[in-house]
Amino acid sequence: MRNKKKRPFAAAVALFPTWAAVLVLYCGTMAWTVYLSFTNSTLFPSTQMVGWKQYETLFSTARWIVSLQNLVIFGVLFVGGCLAIGFVLAAALDRKVRYESVFRTIFLYPYAMSFIVTGLIWQWLMNPTLGVQKTVRAMGWESFRFDWIVDRDMAIYAVVVAGIWQASGLVMVLMLAGMRTIDDGQWRAARVDGIPVWRTYVSIVLPQLGPSVASAATLLSMGVVKTYDLVVALTNGGPGGASEVPAKFIMDNLFQRHNLGLAAAGSTVLLITVVLVAVPLSYARHMQAKKMAGML
C-alpha cells in the first residue's frame, strides 16, 4: 500500500517541469497576447489600455476581412478534398494491390516536405512562363491556361490544390490503418450478398472509420488556421491580396508594420477560432470512441 501511494507522488514530481513549461510557455504566452490586444502596443509592448479599439480596427480593415473569407474557402475545400482523396487512396491500397508499400510511400512522400518546398514546387508548375501552361502551349494548345497564381479569382484555389497535394497522404495512412482493423467477415458477408465493392466501402467501411476521420479532420483543421508558409512561398498573399490569410496578416503587422497590438488582436481571434474548431472535433472523437468501445 505504501508503494502504491508513493508512485502517484513520484509521477507528479517527474511531470512537474513539463506542467510548469506548459503553464508558463503556452498558457502564459496566450494570456500575454490577449493582454497586448487591449493595448496600443506598436513596435514594443505598451501598458496603455485602449479597450476594444484594436478589434474595431481589425474588423474594419478590408485586408483582414478578405483573409477570413480566404480562410473559410481554403479550410472547407482543403479539409474536404484531403478527406475525399485520402479515403479513395486508402480504399485503393486496401485492395492488397501489388507493390502496395511503394505506392504508399509515393502518396505519403509529399507530406514529408515542408510547406515552403510544396509552395515553390507549385509556384513553378503554375508559373505561366515556366510551368505547365508554357509546356502545353508549346505543344499547340494555345488557349490552355494554368496561371492560377497570377489570377485574382483563382489564387486561393491554387493554395488549396497545393495543400491537398501535400496532406492527402496523411489522411490516406490514417484511414488505411482504420480499414485494416475491420473484420474480414464483413467483407465475406458483403460478397455473399452481392454488394459492389464501392458500395461496401461507402456504406459499411466508411461509417466505421469515425475515429480515423475525426483525427484527420482535427489535424487538417489545425493546419488550416496556422497556414502561412504555403501562402508565402506560393503567392505571397497576392495578387493584390487575393490569397491573403489571417496568419500572414498577423505576421506582416508584427514584423513589417510594427503594429504589435493589432497583430495580437488578430492572434486572439485565431486562438478563439482554434478553440471553437478543436473542442467540437475532440468531443465528437471522444463520443465516437466511446460508442465503438460500447459496441465491443
UniProtKB/TrEMBL annotation:
Membrane topology value: Multi-pass membrane protein
InterPro entries given in the database record: ABC_transporter_permease, MetI-like, MetI-like_sf
Keyword Transcription: no
Residues of the ABC transmembrane type-1 domain: 68-281
Domain of life: Bacteria
Gene3D superfamilies associated with the record: MetI-like
Source organism of the structure: Martelella mangrovi
Family indicated by similarity: Belongs to the binding-protein-dependent transport system permease family.
TM segment ranges: 12-35, 71-93, 105-125, 154-177, 198-220, 260-283
Predominant place of localization: membrane
Listed name of the protein: Glucose/mannose transport system permease protein
